[in-house]
Amino acid sequence: MLDNTDNIVYAGFFVRLAAYITDMAIVSAALLIVRLPILFTSIINSENLLIRDFIFQYSIADILFYILTVTYFVLLTYFTGSTFGKKLFNIKVVSAEERNFTFFEILYRETVGRFLAKVIICIGYFMAGLDSKKRGLHDILSDTYVVYHCKKIQND
What we know:
By secondary structure, this protein is mainly α. 56% of the residues lie in helices and 10% in strands.
């Protein structure tokens, strides 16, 4: 667990929400590059395989967009501890055990954890506003915290 809690400031619900909205704006803008050609091909050919329902109500394009979105969150969180939205608000994801994440822990947090947080009217996200350590359901499941990133000052 995080033993040195004197210098830790947990990121609350609203700053995390603002970071997530920023991230989704970035991802949406980037995916627009992929969506436009698919949109134009669907106008030309309404029987396009990419936009027809493939699994349940999801098309191949929907699955592709989901994979690209998850890739953004997983890779940035794994390699840097934060996404561009989190960097903008100076927050990062840290392990409760003060160690580096494994790739599968971050993958679990960003896929299964986020899915379960959204299941019942996003109550798993609102938990961050109620928990003393500001953790959402996906944080609790993956044993992580979102904290303000403060660089340590070394005295010479």
